[in-house]
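Task 17 of the worksheet. Students: predict the tertiary structure of the chain below and write it out as structure tokens. Keep your answer in the requested format; marks are given for formatting as well as content.
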Amino acid sequence: MSIKRLIFLAFSLSLLAGCANKSMTRYEELAQPLEKKGIDATIEKMKEDQDDLYGSNSEFLYYFDLGCLNHYKRNFKESAANFAKAEQIYEDLYTKSVTNEAAAIVTNDNTRPYRARPFELLLMYEFQILNYLAMMDLDGAMVEVRRSQIAMNALYQKDQKKVNDNGLLRYLSAMVYELDGSSDDAAIAYINTVKAYKEGKLKVPNEVLEFVTEGLRSADRENDLVALGTPVPGVTPKASAVRQNGQEIIVIGYAGHSPILGELYMSGTFISGGVMNLTYKDGETGRLSTFTLVAPPVAGAGTGESFHIGFSLPEIKKLHNRVDHFEVSLDGSPRIRPEKVMAVDEELKQNMEDEKSSTITRTAVRVILRTIAAQKAKQAMKTDNILLNLLTSIGTDVAQSQIEQADLRVGLFMPHSLHMTRIPVSVGTHKVVVTANGSAGETVELFEFDKLNVAKGQKVFLIIPSIR
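Model answer:
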């Protein structure tokens, strides 16, 4: 092989190896302006550095993150527009042939367009429904409810063994159906609310169960709730008051910052057509852990041929959260504590667990294929010059090892948890004070609404973002 050809190959490999993992720096670049300068500065930074921070393969995340930040700013129209772009990207990618992502077979998962994790998609629909409800656009909210239903059905058809449902999304859907006068659809959504919570990580929140019970009783379907094995509240004073009076103030609190992803290094032995035994250091306990998976046959390797492998995988990296819960006071009344209605950290944890085996297997096979290809490349480039052969071998190994990068992509501005309470009120002007509190009860942030006007039959949504 000529020196020119060798230099060209080395240069090409270095380009691949030098492709930076955008996820490694995205959080560091955006966390500082969010903490020190606020949401507006963060949005400005995202727009200025979109290509560097996100790139074309993470377009969904770009619009998803913008949608979240604008939602927190109560720029509901702008938030809805960005989420709509993210929705379109998701739908386009969902129908896109995987053959268009062949580059991921020889490089890494970051070369594939990001398709959204199931819980991110469902959270997006929750935000969208709330956007339209806050704008008092019932038609827009109904469109998002229907789109979310299609998405959930598609997720279940894709993998029947995994729970891709969400109690809060079902509950918000029931509220929209009730506002629309679709009582039968509302009843079904209420039943699905209980089912989703029972399948998920949270028990049915007490207030949610009260409104579910009231909704099913009014539809003469309380027995459906009993059939689910759920204790039925004897009385539903808050839900009954909302149903009778019509107007209410609904507080949605976003507490803390959801986890991000870091890199977890695994190493071990891969036996083609046999087993894969891997060891890693547990990020939470610091202990070495070992587990075994089935190793599929790899093209180019003989059955039973063994390889020593090492690679990085995504690992949940918890962030310090100053905000744990909220307290709400209406017109000077004693504070009430909104219940947790969604735990994003648990949703991410479950998603990582669901994808663990397939991600490990896909990554290991990719590493083996590149190892075989690298060995063949070394043979093809072998010359009579021993020093040149050594440099070629080292260069090929280094480039091959650096190509593999863990896919650390995840929404950056999701809350750690969502909290909600519904307060029946009279027509008129009200004062609402919301405190965002730490785990010891200390006040982290204060939100005051001195003159909140509530018209007859109106539902006023207060978005309280404290993702600290």
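Marker's comment: The radius of gyration is 26 Å. The first strand starts at residue 248 and ends at 257.
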